[in-house]
Amino acid sequence: MKILRAADHKRMPWKNGGGETVEIAVTPQGAALADFDWRISMATVAADGPFSIFPGIDRTLSILSGNGMSLALAGQKPVLLTQASQPLAFAADVPVMATLANGPITDLNVMTRRGRFVHDVERNMIDGDWGRTVASGTTLLLCRGGTVTCSYGGETGILSENDALQIEIRTPVTLALQGHAICYLIRIQQT
C-alpha cells in the first residue's frame, strides 16, 4: 500500500502551455509527457480551448469540481461533462475542443499508452462501508470531498482530499473503504 499525499503531487505546465496540471502518479517514475506508459493527473481549466494532443494515448476524463465542460471530440457534437457524469473515455490523439459551462472546472485525467496498457475509471460515492475486488495490475484510488479509511491485505491507511492510494497486485484482492467521500477507482493493466 502506497499513499500519495496531495501535498506531494507534482505541478507542471500543460503540454500546450495553456495551464497547469497536478501529476498524481506516472510510470515509469519521472517519465516526461512524451514517454510515459500511464499517467494520472488533475488540471484546472479556466478558459475555453483545445486539448493537448497525445499521440498513441487513450484518455479518460472526469469532472471533479465546477459546473462542467462540453467536449467536441474530432468535430462531433459536443458532450457535456459534469461532476455527476460518468467518466468519459476517448482517444487523446484526436482534436478536442473544450467549452466551459459556467466558470472554471477541475478535471481528473487518466492516460495510458495504447498497445501497452489499458485502463478504466469508476466514480463511487462512499457513504459508510464499501468493498470491491480488484484484479491484478495497478489500482489507484483518488479521494475527493471527504475522508476514507482504506484496508486491504492486512494494511490500513487514511485518505483525505486529493490523497491517492496506489497498490500493485498480482492476484485479486478485496479493497475495503470506510468513510464519506467521492472516490475515483482507477484500474490499469498491461496488455
Short structural summary:
With 191 residues, the chain is mostly beta strands. The chain has strands at residues 2-4, 10-13, 20-27, 38-45, 49-50, 57-65, 69-73, 79-81, 88-91, 96-100, 105-113, 117-134, 137-152, 155-159, 164-169, 173-190.
Description:
- This protein has strands at 2-4, 10-13, 20-27, 38-45, 49-50, 57-65, 69-73, 79-81, 88-91, 96-100, 105-113, 117-134, 137-152, 155-159, 164-169, 173-190.
- It is mainly β and 191 residues long.
- The strands form 3 sheets. Strands 1, 12, 13, 14, 15 and 16 form a 6-stranded antiparallel beta sheet that branches. Strands 2-3-4-11-6-9 form a 6-stranded antiparallel beta sheet, with no helix packed on it.
- It folds into 2 domains: 2-115, Jelly Rolls (Sandwich), CATH 2.60.120.10; 118-190, Jelly Rolls.
- It is 0% helix and 64% strand.
- Strand 2 and strand 3 form a beta hairpin.
- The chain is built from no helices and 16 strands.
